[in-house]
Amino acid sequence: MKVNYPIFLFLFIAFQSFSQMEMGEFKLRNAVVVAQQDKPEDRYSLEINVLQLLASNGIRTKASLNVVKQGGSPLVLASDSVQSLILQEGIDTYMLISVRGYDKRFKPSETILPMEDELNAGHLFPLFRDDVTSVTFSVTFYRGNRPVHYELIKTGNVGSREAVLKKFLKKLEKRMQQSWL
Fold first, then answer.
1. What is the dihedral of CA 89, 169, 100, 140, to 10 degrees?
2. What pLDDT score was predicted for residue 153?
3. Inter-CA distances, 96 with 9, 87, 99, 131, 173, Å
4. Beta-strand (E) ranges in 46-145?
5. Going by C-beta distance under 8 Å and a sequence separation of 6 or more, which residues neighbour residue 123?
6. I want to staple 155 with a disulfide (CB 3.0 to 4.6 A). Which of 2, 51, 79, 167 is the partner?
7. DSSP string of 37-49?
8. Do 104 and 136 touch, CB atoms closer than 8 A?
């Protein structure tokens, strides 16, 4: 059996880098929090609550709401000039949070989009909808426009928008304490 070594080597390196993203070698020290929500009130609530949680754990934070003008495109965050300004403030990590879906078991994505593509992607799911029992969030961290960590966080037994936020923050803090600090 003939083995094609360049292809094998490429697949091995790709698998190693993706598995390291999930293995928890990630340390969070600072972050620009980007809630990818279409509704402004959902985006504001999610970003502010996550900012408070991160800051209470000693992580330097900044809200994307302070960078992107109201109604402006979040693609501004991927521009070199904005990233260099944010880097001057001592922040090199971008935390993108979006709702992945409802009431299903979602598996982690096998491919993580570059930051610009992820910022450009449409996110149609609100924080809460009637008749759903669980909401799954995807949390992706980027440094230098490259993904460095990715996780799914599922909140169960939700009955209101406030319950979704409360359960998400509780699980986010637990995950942060276990593997991000």
1. 30
2. 95
3. 31, 17, 10, 26, 16
4. 60-63, 93-102, 134-143
5. 36, 37, 38, 98, 99
6. 167
7. -SSHHHHHHHHHH
8. yes
Any idea which of 5-19, 20-34, 84-98, 120-134 has the lowest mean pLDDT?
5-19
Handedness of CA 96, 102, 108, 111 (dihedral sign): negative
Q: With beta carbons less than 8 A apart as the criterion, state whether 43 and 96 touch.
A: no
CATH number of 5-180: 3.40.50
> pTM higher than 0.85, yes or no?
no
**Among candidates 28, 141, 145, which has minimal Cα distance to 84?**
145
Say how far apart CA 152 and CA 65 lie, in whole Å: 23
Sequence ranges of the domains in the chain: 5-180
For residues 39-56, average pLDDT: 94
Torsions phi, psi of 40, nearest 5?
-60, -35
For the chain, what percentages of helix, strand and coil (3-state, to nearest 5) are there?
Answer: 45, 25, 35
